[in-house]
Structure formats: C-alpha cells, structure tokens
Amino acid sequence: MKIDLACLTGNPSAWSQNPEYVSAKQKITGLKVINDCAVRAVKLATDFNNVFTYDETQRQLVFQIVKHHRKLMAQPLKRNYMDA
Questions:
Q1: Total structural domains within the chain
Q2: CA 36 to CA 27: how far, in whole Å?
Q3: Same domain assignment for residues 28 and 42
Q4: 58, 63, 62, 84: which is closest to 73 by C-alpha?
Q5: How far apart are CA 50 and CA 83, in angstroms?
Q6: pLDDT digits over 28-82, tens only?
Q7: Do 42 and 75 have their domain in common?
Q8: Residue 70 and residue 63: Cα distance in Å, rounded?
Q9: What angle do CA 10, 11, 13 make, to 5 degrees?
Q10: Residue 34: its pLDDT value, please?
Q11: 63 and 51 share a domain?
Q12: Can you tell me whether residue 34 is helix, strand or coil?
C-alpha cells in the first residue's frame, strides 16, 4: 500500500493535520476486509453438501450425525483417534 509509517511519529493529536497521515487513513478505511479462510471453508462445505445429496432429509440426517460425532470427540487430539 506504500504507506509511510513516519506519519505516525510525533504527537497523535497533530496527526490529523499531516497530509501523509490523512492519505494513509483514507487508504486503510477504504479497504474491504474479508476472512479468506472462512470464506473458503463455507464454499467448500457448500459445494460438498450440494454434491453429497440433493434430498434435504438426508442432508439434515448427515448434519445430525456429524453433530453427534463432534460431541463424542470433544477434543480433536491425535491421541483420541489412536483406537479408531
């Protein structure tokens, strides 16, 4: 983004008069922030869900089974899977 961090030196109350600070602030506030990992995970889950089954009843059953299994394996540690 080529923001000069020197604009953050000095008294913070004087930053608003510094043109470099104002420019940097405009660049940063104009950014659209996304959680890329979460977006990818939702996309992957949605794609898998649509390929797995088209029947809503079967889909809900799979969700219930996964939820039940997650309760059984409260901590996803390697030692919990050694007996499986």
A1: 2
A2: 20
A3: no
A4: 84
A5: 32
A6: 888 887 778 888 888 887 887 777 777 888 888 888 888 888 787 666 677 766 6
A7: yes
A8: 11
A9: 140
A10: 77
A11: yes
A12: coil
